[in-house]
Amino acid sequence: MLKLSAAAVAVVLLSNPVLAQAQQPATKTVPAQSLSGKLDALFKPQYKAEDPGATVIVVKDGKTVFRKAYGAADVAARTPLTPGTVLRLGSITKQFTAVAILMLAEEGKLALNDPITRFFPDYPTQGKVITVEHLLTHTSGIVSYTSKPDYVSTMAQDFTVARMIDGFRNDPLEFEPGTTFSYNNSGYFLLGAIIEKVSGMTYAGFLERRIFTPLGMKDTAYEGVERSNAPRAAGYSAQEKGFAPAQPLSMSQPYAAGALVSTVDDLATWDTAIASGKLLTPASWKLAFTPYKLSPEKSTGYGYGWSVGTLQGTPMVDHGGGINGFRTHALRLPEQKIFVAVLSNADSGNADPEVLAKRASALAMGKPFMEPKAFELDAGALDAFTGVYEIDAQEKRTFTSRDGKLMMARGERSPRTLTPYSKNGFFLPGTLARFEFGRDARGKVTHVTVDNAGERVRNERVGDAPAERQAVKIDNAGFDARAGAYQLAPQFTITVSRAGERYYAQATGQRQVEIFPASENVFFSRDVNAELRFEQAADGAPVVVLHQNGQVTRGARVQ
Questions:
Q1: Cα 208 from Cα 202, distance rounded (Å)
Q2: Per-residue pLDDT averaged across 122-136, rounded?
């Protein structure tokens, strides 16, 4: 979950405008659409006035060229969002945590190569050395608490910092520290605790006194200790029809990994401070924006609190956020002097802020993304592209063919449907991802080149796609005895039902998904990488257990 205008008018230059007018006296010149108009045309279709929406800012060369809000801050009250509305940032919080750590390092109060046992002497590192830098770069090997089986069921509870750390400190390390990149909220939670131990202040207090107040970021704060009366947006999740308030979340839990709130204006102020080199020395800023390397040849693409890459061939640093009720994204193109922030008050069901932020940035630098058009491709041609393709030693990408469509699943994620745009090319609708398959001299597919916003990576084909999981015949009467709604978390249920010989599951606010029996008690989906298992409670009542994304969540039947 923590699992992110004033117009600058485009001018058309004619080589000889006087001559052009003389040659075409009857033609009226039509001005090119302004940058502001192009940006509005990008965002406006994505949000309805009565639904959750987004606040947007685009800054170029130090000037705000677009600042606007779409949709509702409060759906029930029909209160519109404004550019000055405060929203949750989610994991954009991490860059503030990272800068706080670097400030303390510059003051000599800690070092990036300090082992975490300097600050937590009894932390069980299992004979390994885990450093502050490992926490900053998601390379510690510590289990991320948001991926633990009981996270969803307890996320509304208030916990102390110590209690939260106790929840993951004794888990086995997932890998040798410094050898693998695995996005991790526990690392940034620990960084918040280090800031408190070293500074003698609360995490919220340190950021307020050392960052927000000096920079004039009056509407940015740890949620719950805000200093301004700026309007707040309510957060929503998509339902089968419309939106509903998001699941409750205690902000004691995201903490230094995702508990901040802000406005697009304050984020623009933050970007100006970065561009001006405030708060840190040039050397420290360079460290923050340098991707950590697992080896001389293998970059993680992540610095300290920022992802580091390119957009349409130009350097980019960015980060997104996903937290109950909100999705966010903020990016900077330092060479182009462009900053874009998109903050949405829905965690699902509307446009992806990352895609919109990248499209807006591309428009601002005059290199817009071209929209691919669907291409007619015979279903029989899809089998050539199926297979397993290696992303790296830890992760693979699997392409399968189903019902005349090519499906792609990365790692353990759910499969997504691709659309062809050429004989060998496919795109993922709603994203900037393109997949171009390459063949050898015999015409056999050997690799796929993945283009994401101009960053191109080649994945080699390493094997055949696994056979599709097969369903078995079960006793319908036994299934019917366990059909009904099961509550897995407050305001979240899964309803299982049957229609003839077909079985279905529907989670709160989500579409109905067909499930298939692997046995009398185990069901799987071909659309979502998840599994439902039926068990019995001590009193004999049916219980459903959801296995998804490494999490195991139990729910008792409520109807």
A1: 10
A2: 97
